[in-house]
Structures are given as structure tokens and as C-alpha cells.
Amino acid sequence: MPDLLLELFSEEIPARMQGKAADDLRRMVTDKLVAEGLVYEGAKAFATPRRLALTVHGIPARQPDLKTERRGPKVGAPDAAVQGFLKATGLKSLDEAKIQRDPKGDFYIGLIEKPGRDAIDVLAEILPVIIRTFPWPKSMRWGARSGKPGSLNWVRPLHAITATFGLETEEPDVVKFEVDGIEAGQTTYGHRFLAPAPISVRRFEDYEAKLLDAKVVLDPERRKDAILTDAKQLAFAQGFELVEDQNLLDEVAGLVEWPVVLMGSFEEEFLATPAEVIRATIRNNQKCFVVRDPKTGKLANKFILVANIEATDGGKTIVAGNERVIRARLSDAKFFYETDLKTKLEERLPKFEQIVFHEKLGTQAERIKRIERLAAEIAPLVGADVAKAVRAAHLAKADLLTEVVGEFPEVQGLMGKYYALAQGEEASIAVACEEHYKPQGPADRVPTDPISVAVALADKLDTLVGFWAIDEKPTGSKDPYALRRAALGVIRLIAENDLRLSLLKIATSALAGLSVKAAEAQKLPSDLLAFFADRLKVQLREQGARHDLVDAVFALGGQDDLLMIVRRVEALGKFLETDDGKNLLAGTKRASNILSIEEKKDKRTFDGAPDAALYSLVEEKALAQAIGEVKAEASAAVAREDFAVAMSAMAELRPPVDAFFDKVRVNDDDARVRENRLKLLNEIRSATRAVADFSKIQD
Amino acid sequence: MDASLPAHMRPERSFQGFILALQRFWAEQGCVILQPYDMEMGAGTFHPATTLRALGPKPWNAAYVQPSRRPKDGRYGENPNRMQHYYQFQVIMKPSPPNLQELYLKSLAAIGIDSAVHDIRFVEDDWESPTLGAWGLGWECWCDGMEVSQFTYFQQVAGFECAPVAGELTYGLERLAMYVQGVDRVYDLNFNGRDGDQKVTYGDVFLQAEQEYSRHNFEVADTAMLFEQFKMAEAACRKYLDAGWKDGKREAHLMALPAYDQCIKASHVFNLLDARGVISVTERQSYILRVRELAKACGEAWIHTEAGGAA
After folding, report:
1. In the prediction, which pLDDT does B282 show?
2. H or E segment at A109?
3. What is the distance between the alpha carbons of residues A302 and A300, in angstroms, rounded to a whole number?
4. Which of A2, A38, A247, A314 is the most exposed place for a label (fewest CB within 10 A)?
């Protein structure tokens, strides 16, 4: 079956858009082919800075013929209806229609035969539409045609379209179409500088090969592989090791059609600047890689650049030019760093009085004061020295006002640590300046130093309570203040450090520290707690754990000790994996179901202790006794926070519950016995509530 | 590069030779070579030959040097490449020709940048000027890792769609010349291409000016007067715009250019006030908006003039 080759050749496409554009092109063309009844065998799309290319192979040469029946008017219907039917079906007269009888009468049926069209004609129709409606994140108009309405929008000026269709064994045909004055053909161009001449191509195989001859590596994965291999080798040859950087690699591969990897160096004196700053400078501004000494792990005074040409001087000029720029950039960075060191962190703080954190939540200075206060409160609960936690909270944000962080926001916190150490702060205080931002996401490391933990919790809880107070909660996909991340951070800090905190108490205290009046201050802490419960569920779900158990535990009420919640959920999860757990859950649910039916019938509840005098069967007595024992045992275990023991106590309930349902008829004819048995069922439910609300657990 | 040039005129030796080579190149592409606009402005784009001429249907090809005044960027002559006054070389071609990228690369060759040994790259950089109500898509052009030009296809100017679209090139002249001459400090640029006693450097021409203007911009500029000047320019712009409508009907405008001068003035005065640090963050936005409103009104007037394409 024939194959399609499509190339859209343009001026330089932004690197960050290339990957998605290739995917979009493949998806749009193949979806449309399938919708047209042309089921293909395979498709692959590619992008370089100057072209999007697509190959679809194994497309049928023709669409299948389509036969459809269309029901028309009743025999003897008015002429207007008959004419409409003839027009819609394309029949010349009613003689060509069948008549079909059904209970409502005789109807005309038109048989419409739509012969399949040649795939190349279908392509000529769909390709221009796809090009005109292509979903670039940003697109533009250009040239003389942009003076008139309806001109093409593309990411950058589009210069040529190659579109061929045909069998491997034959000379393919050009898919004939035109978009905004550009005729599809079979001519493309090689590398902008190394091989700019036109190239005539037939199909994907010779297209890719001819491009390679013309110094264009079509497949971005191949460009990435080449860059990575060459960069590693070049570093290795000089006794260094490449600092790998996937995002940078992706970007650089989108900036070149013919990657040429070169190495340059800079003055050793720049290495006195922190490695992260050097890396940020070289990476962000120059899109170059850094290398390190494999023995010490320290950065070397070298960098690796990826050029787009094989220069006639072997790259000497290119390396020298890049070295010059990097020298200037590093000398700026060094200057920023040295300037920063001249000012102590606390001397920067007064400036925060002028900087608004959020218009309703006051200035950064006010925010820092709140964090200090909360850190002092949290410190004793996490085993941190209060004075040190306050000092760390005092300094933790100061690096935001330094030159280096102004230039490279991604090193915030880290620079705080360096500057704190440089001014002689104690190590744990300096470390907290960096770590209080952690964890930044589900994969980020959770700090363990108590000072860091205290400030990290204070920072996140102040943020959460503050935005809750001004009703800026996350909704749907919108979470501009990253509150979900902050809540997850709190959960992980507590769970992974085994911390015992009353969130309600801290939230209430944080709320009291705000200058803004919360609309529903009373409800706020418990509202926030529900948000934590949601986050905990999401986290458990992502770990593949049962998130309904979180509801079962939260439904008990008064649960604001996250660590205990997590532990209880874990124990409950384990218990429910055992046969005892599963059967007890089933028994409890059965009791609950019966109760809710009977409660509805009688319009009453069956609270209160059952009357032992009314037990007539052994199973009743046994169950009542077991409930009493299990309740006491489980409650004691819960009080000791030994949830595993509490659960195994619950397991003892299973045989008497099973026996009860086996042998005892709840709805006894004697109303007093019935009531008593229902009360006993209610006791099962309340006994299990010592560990969780079983009714919230999904089967 | 033109091999017949005498040594002191060669772009790699002489700053003025460098400018002349660019002018000559673009003159050969059919551009009118204009002289700098006689007003202070933050970027060559403010020149009416770009801002206003980018609007309307009439073809327009022009190139010129424009001093760019950025009061905040002054460093008292102490920074090797940051100045409150520097030159931009500006090219505008409307409609953008299909080979504008090739023309740009040839212009680099004309000033001694050979694409066989230099790594020239077009790196995404979308341009937006909030004060002019303008935006476009394009690139920053890199030569061996250094940004040397800005390349933009104007999509909108003064709040109006560009139809047809103009292509705009902006060369940072000092930076490019430093690269070509191989000097690390702008003040060391050879200005006239001569040697010995006859040599004039960029520093000889501009160092004192940088020191004086830095003092003026940061320390002395009269802020009360400047606030007043901003209001006066804004009011004058409005007044000329109102008075310019022919017969009081909004069909033809007769004074778009004088009105636009006042918009340029307001913008520069704002930049001076900003450098003096007397405009707060919130006020800043409102000043930018006020200049944009003027620019939009001027654009509207312009498209009702003859050069703006009014029938």
C-alpha cells in the first residue's frame, strides 16, 4: 500500500514547541485518515528547527465504497416531500427507489451508493485544512499576503510544502494542493549554511537520507543521542565528566539541525563562585553544559557548547566567541555574588516592609514575622531549639533580595544558605534557609533537621491559613499559589519525620496571627483540615493505596493529628487485606444495611444498650459478649496508639458476627426481641468505630 | 565585505566604518537611509519611521541609526558594556520580504561576520512593547552564543493589526562592533579606524557624556519639573490629536506626526522619572498605560493620514 510523506518547511520554530507540533501533526493527519475510512499501518513525525515532517505508511490507495439506505416519504406523500427526497438521495425519479412496508404504511427507500475516492484526492482535501487549523501555541502572519484577510497563520513564515504519495516501487505522485500561495511539491532544502541548495525528494526513505547528506539530522532523538554521546566523550577525553541535563538537552537539540559539540573553558578564578550559580549562568543564558571532575565532583572550568555548523576553522572562532560571552556572564555573576556577600542578610530585611506579599495578606516583612512566631510555636513540638528556629525563620527569605537570586530565581534558598554560612550563622540555621522551601513536590527530599522542619512547616502553614482566610482556595485546575503542593509538603514533613502535631491548634494560632479578618474564622481550621484529608487521599491514590480509608478515619471526627491518621489508615489497610478484615467489613455493612432499612420503616433509631434478659439464642449472647470485650480491647489499643493491635482485636469480632447472621433472625415476631436484636446490630457498628467508620469504606 | 575599502573604513577596524557598511548594504536593498530622529527615545522602534510607518497598507523600506536613551542603564562609564546612551541600527521592511532572513545574514557578512566560521542561530524571542501597544514574533539572533540582533515580524502596533506585516531588524551596534573589533570594553572601540595620534575611541566620544548623564539621570534630574513635563506632553498630544481631525470629522487627520512627538516625549520623561526612583511599582503600570493610550490614539490618527494609507 502507498505511503505519504509530508514536510512543512519554515523559518526557525521555537525549540520548546517542536515536540508537541510533531505529535499534533501526526495525530491530526492520522485521525482524519481514519475518519475518512483510510486505515493506515504506521506513522511517525519529526521536527527540526526548520521543518515538521510526517511519514504515514500503508495507506489504502482508495476509500472503500459506501452504501447507505435512506428512508423517504410515504407512498402518496405530497410532491414537495417527494422532491426533497429525490434531491437528498440524488435519485432521478421514484422509479429508482424501493418501497418498504412497515406497520405505519409503505415508504420509499433510496439506496445511496457513494463510491470511495482515491486516497490522494482525500489527502489533497484534508492536508490544507490541517495546515490552516494547526494548533500552534502562538502563530503569526507575514509578507505581502498578510495585507489581506484570511492569510495563513503559522508559527513563523512557512516557505515550502513537500507532499508525496505512492508505492515504494513506483515514482510517487505529488499530493496537489496549495495553501496561501504555497504549492505542495517535492522540493525541500538542506542545512541553512552547510547545504542550502534545493533537494528533490520522492518518499520518506530517500528524503531522510538526502537530508542527512545535506547536513540535517531529521530525528530529534538522533540529534539528542549524538549530542549526549559526543559531549560525554569530549568531557571524558579531557578527564572530566558531563553534568547531564535532560531539559537542556531537549532544548539544544531543538536549536540545531547538525549538532557539532565543542568544548571551551573559562578562567579558574570564577570557580570561587558557587557551582549552582555558574551552572545557572552557563545553562540559562548560554544554553551550554558544564562538566565536573569525576574524582572530586566539583565543577571544572570548562563548558560544552553545541554549534549548528561544521566551521571551516574547526570551530576555533565559535569556541572563542562563546568563551568571551561566558566570561562576561560569569564576571557579572561573580560580581553579583561578591556584592551580595558585602551585605548581611538581616540588613536586607527592612526592604521587605515595602514589598507586598499579597495585597490582602500584607507585606513580606509582616509575613516573615508571622512565620517566626509560628516557627517558635512549632519548634518544641518537633524537637527544635526555639531560638534557632526563630533565627532561621528571620533570615530564610532574605536572599530573595540578593542580586544573584534576582538574576537566577531558581537558586533561591540555596543562596540564602551560602550567605548565612558566610556571615557565620550556625550550620542548621543556614541549612534551614535552603530547606524550608522543601519538599517542593512529591519527588523532592523531605528535610529532617528539626530547625528546617520547624521553619518549613511554619512557612507552609502560614501560606495555607492566609490564603484560606482571604478565600483564595484552589479550584479545579487553578492553584496559582501552589497551595496543594504546600499541603502535601506539610503531610510529608509530618509523616516522614513521625511528628505529633495538632493541626487544628496550629491553624487556629496561625489564623490569630493574621491581620486580615477571615470571613468564616470559626469554620476555617476544620475546612483546612478537610483539605489536608483530600490531599492525603490524592497522595495515597498516587501511591496506589486505598484512599477511601482516609474518609473512614476522618469520619470519626476530631482527627487532626496527621501522623495518627496516616498510621491508622495504614493499619486499617492491612487489616482489610486479611480474610478476617474482609468478612468483618461485610458483616458490619450487613448490620448497617439492615439497620438503615428498619430505621426507615420504624422512623426511629436503635441506640442504647440491648437488654441481656431478652437474649434467647447462644449466638446472641456470644456476640454481645464479644462486642463488650473487643470494644474495651480495641479502645485501649487505640489509646496506646497501637493500631495493629486494635485491628487484631477487631478480628475477634468476626466469628460471632458470622455466627449471628447465620443463626439469628433479626426481625423476630416478638417486637421486643426484634428491637433488642436491632440494638445489638447497632452495637457492632459502634464497636468498629473504635478504629474507623466502616460505612465509608468501599467494597 | 568590500575589499576595496581603505583600512580605516573597514567594519572590523572602525565603528563608523561599521555603521557605513550597514547603511550601504541596506541602501542596496532598496531601503531609504534616514538619519536619527531628533528626539530622545528608549529604542529605535519609537522612531515614527517604524512605529507609524508600520501601520497602513503602503509599502515602506527604511534603515537608520537611532541613539537609544535608557536613563536607568547608566553606570557612570564604569561598566564595560552598559550605557544610558547607545546606538541601535534599525531596518524596517513592509511588507516583510520572503527572503528577509537571507538578507539579514548577508548584512552580517557585509560587516565581517562570515557564516562559514561563525555559529549563527535564530533563538525564539517574542517581542512586546507595552508602552507602544505593540507585539510581534521573531527571534534574538545569536552569533557564537552572543545576542547580536533582534528580528521581529510586527503583528500589532499601537493596538492596530499590521496589514501587511512589517519585518523589523534591530542591531546592537556597539556590541556587534566590539565583537568584530575584538575589544572587551565599549570605550576601547576604535571609532574612526585611525591609528596613533589620529585614533579616536568610543571613550573619547562618549565616556564623559556617560558620566555626566548618569549623574543627571540618577541624582539631579528635576523630578517636579519632569512630572509637570509628562502632564504637559500628554495634554499637548491630546490637544494636537483633537485639533488634527479635518473639518472636525473623524475621516482624515492632519497632525498625527506632531502629536506623536509628544507621545515620544512623554515616554522619555517617564523613563527619566523611573531612573530617579520616584515612581512606585503600582504607579509605574499606570504611567505605562497612559503612554500606551497616547500611542494608540496617534496610531489611529496616522491611519487616517495619506502616508497611513487613508483613501
Report:
1. 65
2. strand A105-114
3. 5
4. A247
Q: Which CATH number fits domain A3-61+118-213: 3.90.320, 3.10.150, 3.30.70, 3.40.50?
A: 3.30.70
- C-alpha A575/C-alpha A591 separation (Å) is 19
Instruction: Please give the grid coordinates belonging to residue A552.
Output: 473512614
Tell me the domain boundaries of chain A.
Answer: 3-61+118-213, 67-114, 220-341, 347-520, 578-696
Q: A185: part of which helix (H) or strand (E)?
A: strand A182-185
Is the Cβ of B122 closer than 8 Å to some Cβ of chain A? yes
CATH class of the domain defined by A578-696: mainly alpha
Least confident of A33-37, A484-488, A678-682, B25-29: A678-682
Answer whether CATH 1.10.1740 is correct for domain A347-520.
Answer: no
B-chain residues near A14 (CB < 8 A): 124
Question: Residue B64: enclosing H or E segment and its boundaries?
Answer: strand B60-69
Alpha helices in A516-652 (DSSP H): 524-542, 548-554, 562-577, 579-602, 618-639, 643-651
pLDDT above 70 (res A669): yes
Question: CA-CA distance, B47 to B38, in Å (whole number)?
Answer: 9
ipTM score here? 0.94
Contact A22, A47 (CB under 8 A): yes
- B155 contacts in A (CB within 8 Å)? 140-141
Do residues A622 and A664 make contact, with C-beta atoms less than 8 angstroms apart? Answer: no
Q: Kindly report the backbone phi and psi dihedral angles of residue A503, in degrees, each rounded to the nearest multiple of 5, phi listed first.
A: -65, -35
Q: What is the pLDDT of residues A567-608, one digit of tens each?
A: 888 888 888 888 888 888 888 888 888 888 888 888 888 888
- C-beta atoms of B122 and A138 within 8 A: no
Residue A582's identity, in one-letter code, is K
Residue whose grid cell is 496559582: A480
Residues forming beta bridges with residue A138, ordered by sequence position: none
Residue A49 grid cell? 528547527
* Strand A362-363 versus strand B32-34 pairing type: unpaired
Yes or no, beta carbons of A321 and B119 under 8 Å apart: yes
Cα A361 to Cα A463, A473, A504, A586, B85: the distances in Å are: 10, 14, 21, 50, 41
**What is the b/e burial string over A58-74, where b = at least 16 CB atoms within 10 angstroms of the residue's CB?**
ebbebbeeeeeeeebbe
Q: Report the C-alpha gap between A538 and A547 in whole angstroms.
A: 7
Contact A140 B153 (CB under 8 A): yes
With beta carbons under 8 A apart, name residues in chain B contacting A330.
none
Please give the torsion angle defined by the CA atoms of residues A283, A284, A285 and A291, in that order, rounded to the nearest 10 degrees. -10
Summary count for chain A: helices (H), strands (E): 25, 18
The pLDDT score that the predictor gives to residue A31 is 97
Contacts of B104 (CB under 8 A, 6+ apart): B141, B149, B151, B169
Cβ-in-10-Å burial (0-12, 13-18, 19+) of A291 comes to buried
Shortest Cα distance, chain A CAs vs residue B243, angstroms: 30
Percent of chain B residues past pLDDT 90, beyond the cut: 89
pTM of the shown model: 0.79
- H/E element holding A404? helix A403-407
Quick one: cell of B311?
A: 483613501
Distances in whole angstroms, Cα of residue B213 to Cα of each of A98, A388, A602: 94, 48, 92
How far apart, in whole angstroms, are the C-alpha atoms of residue A642 and residue A644?
6
Between CA A362 and CA A371 the distance in angstroms is: 13
Grid-cell match 459478649, residue found:
A625
Interchain pair A322, B136: CB under 8 A: no
CA nearest neighbour of A12 among A154, A134, A156, A140: A156
Q: Among candidates A95, A93, A101, A92, which has minimal Cα distance to A71? A: A101
